[in-house]
Amino acid sequence: MKNTIQKIFTICALTTAALALTGTDTSAASKQVLADAKKVDALVQKNLAANDAKPYPMTDDATFVRRIYLDLAGRIPTAEESQAFLKSKDPAKRTKLIDQLLDSDGYLAHHFNYWSDILRVKTLLSGAGQSRPAGYAYMRWIKDSIRDNKPYDQFVREMLTADGVAWENGAVGYYIRDYGMNLCNMSTTTQVFLGTSVQCAQCHDHPFDKWTQMDFYKAAAFQYNLITTNGSENQNAALAVLQKNNKEAYDRDGRDLRRAFSEILKPLRFNNVKHTNRNLTLPHDYQYDDAKPKSKVETGTLFGHEAEVKEGENPLFAYAEWMTSKENPRFTTVITNRMWKKAMGLALIEPLDEITDASKPTNPELMAFLENRMRAYNYDLKKFMAMVHNTKTYQRQAHRKDVMPGEQYHYPGPLLRRMSAEQIWDSIVTLVIDDPDAANPYTDLNQDKLLTRTKWIAEAVYDQSPQEFLKSAKQVAATQKKLSDEMRELAEKRAEALEKEDVALARKLAAESGKKQRELVKMIESNVYEKGFDEKLQLVAANLKKDPKSKSQIDDELVADLTGCIEDGTMSLADLKNSPMMDIVNTVMKEKDAELKAWNEDRKKREWKDWGIKSADQQKAWYSYNSNRQSNMTRSVNLTQPAPRGHFLREFGQSDREVVENANDEATISQALNLLNNPGVHSSLRNPYSKIRRDLKDAASPEEALDALYLALYSRKPTDQESKLLLPIIAENQSQGALEVAWTMLNTTQFLFIQ
Questions:
Q1: What pTM, to 2 d.p., does this model score?
Q2: I need a labelling partner for 257 at 20 to 30 A (CA). Which of 87, 153, 361, 490 fits?
Q3: How many beta carbons lie within 10 A of that of residue 58, not counting itself?
Q4: Which among 417, 439, 434 has a CA at the least distance from the CA of 70?
């Protein structure tokens, strides 16, 4: 009965997947894309013929389905997805699968990884842990932009002109990533969006290109008035008040007060970007005769027409418009080049981020057509990729030889490529969990909590008057001095204890020192954050008394949030007044906690029923499986960015995100050893409730088990020769033998390469 039910579920799953590949409707946009794809093929064919070359044969369906999932969704297809595609008789099934994947959550995950490598995205965006909220906000903004298919020119403009706080405008992460380093950020901007390497010109005229040091500084002047800051407006105003009213106290206590302000604003550090009237000046050692050292630099573009700055306009907005304009040929060339390389493995102009006036595409006519389509599509990257992936050029068999630097490649097919670290990891995840593309709710909830807490602290602090903030800082400064003296005394006693080799006493004194440090944090929470929070509560009470239903009319976001908590019954006004702010943050998020807990409980009940889990051992194995997929065996997009050193992803070449596109897809001995012996991957795949183990369990024979393995890992069924070699291993002990075969397949180049 169980096998019958399982077969019914399988048939339903295959039918559902197949339905996505059937139908006859084709939109006008799709017809245009397909017509453009044919034009691309014609231009490639023309170039091949001119160079006495021929295109490679078309891929079979098994090769195509695996390639397109890896290129668009960043993972191998599941066995069910492969089988649905292979069984479909729809002549348009390739086009329909491309459209389906472009609209999938897998596309979002994969392309987030792609842009994270280019934009050097990190969870800890800059500095230490205080930048985590900005990292989360920036990542969310990138994901939302990909999900919404935001036009690429708009995506870039929003980053270049971003200001404000991270939790309100995640795009500021672009500048926070280079906190306090405007000149370095400008170099990255030109490299990523204009394909131009100008780093050398920061210190001297470029030795191998036309850029002068003055060119560099003129371009940097557009962005220089935007600053990243850890201060606040009321902090500056508070110090100004003190300086005006009591200069003696300002001179005496100014340094201590700044330390106090820094401690108060610690949870909000690395989150603020704002426009100023700051001007860029040349360095003190500027050595060229076109200007004097330390003189003011006027704005100027690197090439093409000048950015027209209107009277009273922020130059940065003019610069962003200039950069992303359709009239700026370099902007279109670079993104076109990037997208072509992403699909084909090699750009038409290499290297793609060191383009010079002398750079020529290997197929100028094709390059011109692709750039024309990018503009015509209004920088809709999904539409552009739909065109490229629908070409016969992309769907041909892969080129299996290395293309040497300087060698002309005419695209008889895409290059054979090794999977990225993220693609390998996400493909293994696909073998373990049922819905690898779904967002991880645990990751999302943890981010929600931190961003909510940070936002509430900011609103409780930033809205304090300068006088109130100064008073708070004086209290904190006094506490800092007192605790500093006490901690110095503890440190001296601990040093004496260590000299006497009294380890127990040294540990006790270290613990006491830690408590002293936490005292300051608690004092700031109660005396500063709570004070600002109480003022918000008074506004809530007044608002409710005046008009209980006026939440939508409140300008103050925190007051609106708190009013909403009362209106929806999350908390009462009395609860709000009697609870610390940090507890209220947790209470507000409690509803999401409860929803997640209920969702997980429903999933447990469903899986226990469907998978026949009854015994204590079975339940224990399921709990291990569930915990693993919540925190570890989840797609790379849900993990820390980048993964910590020693993690599978880093071992297989994930970028450290220190420089643009710093990932490495070269094979190493340590990778081979890792894949053979990684205990986390081993235990995940071997768990009886991993997807691959459940598929193997349902196999009625060694032949079905081998078919299940090949469909899951290679998207095809085994050849006669492979069956002859491997079936005896599985037949001897189906459960253990199938796992041994699976592990062998996982460690082959056939698994690790995009063919």
A1: 0.91
A2: 490
A3: 13
A4: 417
